[in-house]
Design a protein that fits this description.
The complex is a heterodimer of chains A (267) and B (287).
Chain A lengths: L10 H7 L4 H17 L2 H14 L7 H4 L3 H4 L8 H20 L15 H11 L4 H28 L8 H23 L4 H15 L5 H9 L6 H33 L6
Chain B lengths: L1 H18 L4 H4 L3 H4 L1 H4 L21 H7 L2 H23 L12 H26 L24 H6 L8 E2 L5 E2 L3 H17 L1 H4 L11 H21 L8 H41 L4
Antiparallel strand pairs in B: 1-2
Helix pairs in contact in B: 11-12
The chains are: A mainly alpha (267), B mainly alpha (287).
């Protein structure tokens, strides 16, 4: 006769009275160990819910319900542009992370001798296995993303999808398209070749021409009025640190709002 | 609704006075019963009962929400109204909710999505394998290249920076310009982006197709053409054409395109409405 409790909560006794295989008993004791600490039971309901949601039937869309497919089938590829730009963004993020292993934002001199950044790009393109392809992939996915974003905006405009309940998403979209172009611009400057340098020069002049705060903006974004190491470093940080966080969050919000409000389908 | 707000407004001053005694006054509408920390001695040494089990006097969570003040009260009232509005709309509507069967999310939709995604990623890979990028000579601040260009998607913005001929010379300032040409160019960028941003606040209504709204479709088409012409103007040193002529074309072509798109869509709308009306009157012939 033991002093141990033998009520419903004595899981060990319950396991003993069942005739369990070793696999089952190991599984159960691990489960009990975790459940005592984390109370997994509470989350099982969520999992179950998810399981049934995955097997749910998608509701018929507006066009399917009213049999409008024969009228609008040629519009449908245009409705994939948003997801195309998202996919291109993901591809660019992955290839960019891989490029980041080899790139160094160091522009020692702008006097025609190749800087470290330029040399690293050359190294990626000539010495690294698949490096040329990697850079190509990053560049093309960025180009495709920008193109898809532009076309996506045109589609939204011409099908009136920005109307009444969706104004907020239209404005988020404008912020996103602008940030996409900033993404492209900062990335354009990173190789630190002639085109990059002089495009950066235009950027400095643009920010200097803003009334009142122009010099401050130039200092903040470009680290000075001429292009130096500071410029390249700021562009690099914008490109790989600040913008990814902001843009990824905004994309999530953008898609989340589409999810909540539903796709504006043609009538 | 209005009565409710009136009563809350009337109660507010007394509440504010009571709330000075302790933070608990904020949460409840019956301050005399519930503000225990004001009347009794508060144990701060950790010995006293920090959490009191709810009895009948303690308001339930929902009651607490109903009785609360200020913004949370307003939020609560609005949500109640919104819920009622939804319910009324549902009851009024003649729309019957049926079970509509589509494809299951798994596997049908997911396989379709994966197929589209991998096709698209494959296209990017094909592009990048066949058309690898070029890298120019290293940066040299000493030699300005003949061609300075941003990437193609910034040409429009680059073109807007070259709008100097449009910058007005004000006679009030003695023929001086109000702002520098390059400030004017940066401002033009902001104006374009702002104009695109306010579109949903100008164009309301249920119309969706371009045919249904020829004006806005025309404006959009003009805008697209302007994006192309101003991009072309941004690289005018590469195009063998008189720059002034190109500048004029950059503004005339979009207007022309907008007018053409407008008239085409307008005439299409006649036919579209004719079809719609014919179908309508066939279904319900006029008596």
């Amino acid at each position: 006769m033991s002093l141990e409790r033998k009520d419903d909560h004595d899981h060990k006794a319950w396991m003993k009275e069942r005739d369990l295989t070793p696999v089952e008993s190991i599984y159960l004791s691990v489960l009990v160990w975790f459940d005592k600490r984390l109370r997994i039971v509470d989350y099982l309901e969520l999992l179950e819910d998810l399981y049934y949601k995955v097997n749910m039937q998608m509701p018929k869309s507006h066009t399917e319900q009213y049999n409008l497919d024969n009228k609008f089938w040629y519009w449908y590829p245009l409705y994939a542009l948003g997801s195309f730009s998202t996919i291109a963004y993901i591809v660019a993020a992955i290839s960019g992370a891989l490029l980041g292993f080899y790139y160094a934002p160091a522009a020692a001199a702008a006097d025609g001798t190749p800087s470290v950044a330029y040399q690293q790009i050359s190294l990626i393109m000539t010495d690294l296995n698949m490096g040329f392809f990697l850079r190509s992939l990053h560049r093309w996915s960025a180009q495709v993303m920008v193109a898809a974003v532009f076309l996506h905006m045109l589609r939204v405009y011409f099908t009136g999808a920005y109307k009444e309940p969706r104004e907020l998403n239209w404005i988020i979209g404008i912020v996103l398209i602008s940030l996409t172009m900033v993404f492209g611009y900062t990335g354009y400057l990173l190789p630190w070749d002639q085109l990059a340098f002089w495009a950066g020069q235009i950027g400095v002049e643009m920010s200097l021409s803003i009334p009142l705060i122009g010099e401050w903006v130039a200092q903040l974004l470009f680290g000075g009025f001429t292009l130096t190491q500071a410029t390249l470093q700021r562009m690099y940080l914008l490109h790989v640190f600040l913008l990814p966080f902001v843009v990824t969050t905004l994309i999530a919000v953008h898609i989340g709002i589409v999810w909540m409000q539903g796709i504006a389908e043609p009538h | 609704m209005t009565e409710d707000t009136d009563t809350t407004d009337a109660e507010e001053p007394t509440e504010d006075v009571a709330a000075d005694g302790g933070p608990a006054g904020e949460a409840s509408g019956t301050p005399s019963e519930l503000r225990s920390d004001g009347g009794e001695e508060t144990a701060t040494d950790g010995a006293g009962p920090g959490i009191v089990p709810p009895d009948d006097e303690t308001p339930a969570w929902s009651e607490r929400k109903q009785r609360s003040q200020g913004l949370s009260r307003l939020t609560y009232e609005y949500f109640e109204r919104a819920r009622r509005e939804d319910q009324d709309l549902r009851q009024e509507s003649s729309y019957v909710e049926r079970d509509v069967l589509g494809f299951p999310a798994w596997p049908h939709e997911m396989i379709r999505n994966l197929a589209i995604t991998s096709f698209f990623v494959g296209m990017i890979i094909l592009l990048s394998a066949t058309l690898p990028p070029h890298i120019g000579p290293p940066a040299n601040s000493g030699s300005t290249p003949a061609i300075i260009l941003p990437d193609w998607y910034l040409y429009w913005s680059f073109g807007l920076l070259k709008l100097a001929p449009l910058n007005p010379e004000l006679s009030l300032l003695g023929g001086q310009k109000l702002m520098a040409d390059r400030t004017f160019g940066v401002l033009a960028n902001l104006v374009v982006v702002g104009a695109v941003a306010i579109v949903p606040f100008l164009n309301k209504g249920a119309a969706r197709r371009p045919v249904e709204q020829p004006f806005w479709a025309g404006v959009g088409f003009g805008g697209v053409v302007f994006a192309f012409t101003i991009s072309a103007y941004s690289v005018n040193n590469l195009i063998p054409m008189e720059p002034t002529l190109q500048f004029d074309l950059a503004f005339l072509l979009p207007v022309l395109a907008a007018c053409i798109a407008y008239s085409v869509l307008k005439s299409m709308r006649e036919g579209y409405m004719f079809d719609l009306n014919r179908r309508y009157y066939r279904l319900r012939p006029p008596k």
